[in-house]
Amino acid sequence: MDFRTTYSQRIKTEAKRLGFLSCGISKAEFLEEEAPRLEKWLNNQMHGEMKYMENHFDKRLDPTKLVQGSKSVISLLLNYYPSEGQKDPDAPKISKYAYGTDYHFVIKDKLKQLLHFIQEEIGEVQGRAFVDSAPVLDKAWAAKSGLGWIGKNSNLLTQQVGSFYFIAELIVDLELEYDTPVTDHCGTCTACIDACPTQAIVEPYVVDGSKCISYFTIELKDEISKDYKGQFDNWMFGCDVCQDVCPWNRFSKPHNEPLFNPKPELLEMSKKDWEEITQEVFSKVFQKSAVKRTQFSGLTRNIRFLKDD
User: Fold this and answer.
1) Is residue 296 part of a domain?
2) Which domain holds residue 20?
3) Which member of 10, 99, 164, 167 has the greatest number of CB atoms within 10 A?
4) Which of 132, 173, 244, 273 is catalytic?
């Protein structure tokens, strides 16, 4: 058996042990198919005020420019699908991924452990861990590594488990055995396009980020345009609509990562509780949460926007 095959199998076994849903590996090289797509998306201003998307264009498309001497991109998926949701059906909604501890911390820790394992077991290997906080096209690498296909809602979809998972990667200077992409299984389905409250999926496989509820409630720093009044489907942080309606998410199973479990009060809060939330309650409920990104002022702005409907 080739050393690359052996190393790859050992890495995948360890990734499973660390709790990752799946692991796929691809060659670190220029993303030829993605380059024109990304350029067009940026030229059409679909990133709105997310100016950081314009930075490091070449690094986004070529990991060898990001990590010196890199040979392989190890892509990993980590399930975050919760076993229960918010209790009050009228309460403003939070995207499922933000229920528990901020995923950046949880995944970074696991990636460090995986890199340490590779260095211990295989030898002098250099690499860097990425969790959507650097110019890396996570979904493109995961698709290239055979972990799923990019669906019409621009999320990575997997036949066995849907799409409620985080994507992360280790970029290393080690040659490994590379996986091959899987085929697209969206077929003629347009459930996500039909259900998007703000028509952000402007054509199959293209999402105008500047129209997405997640963008408005998290990324946008200014006031939300009144043009979108009544279109937010009661989402105050993020939005799961295009995932909730996706037929492949019938196969989602609850995660088993204790750190992703929400504080009980988060699920218990009523519509009234949210409308009267104080800085103190915000700090307590979202102590280590991704929701801190929008800050108290951002979350209350979102709640006000929904309330005035």
Assistant:
1) yes
2) 1-304
3) 167
4) 132
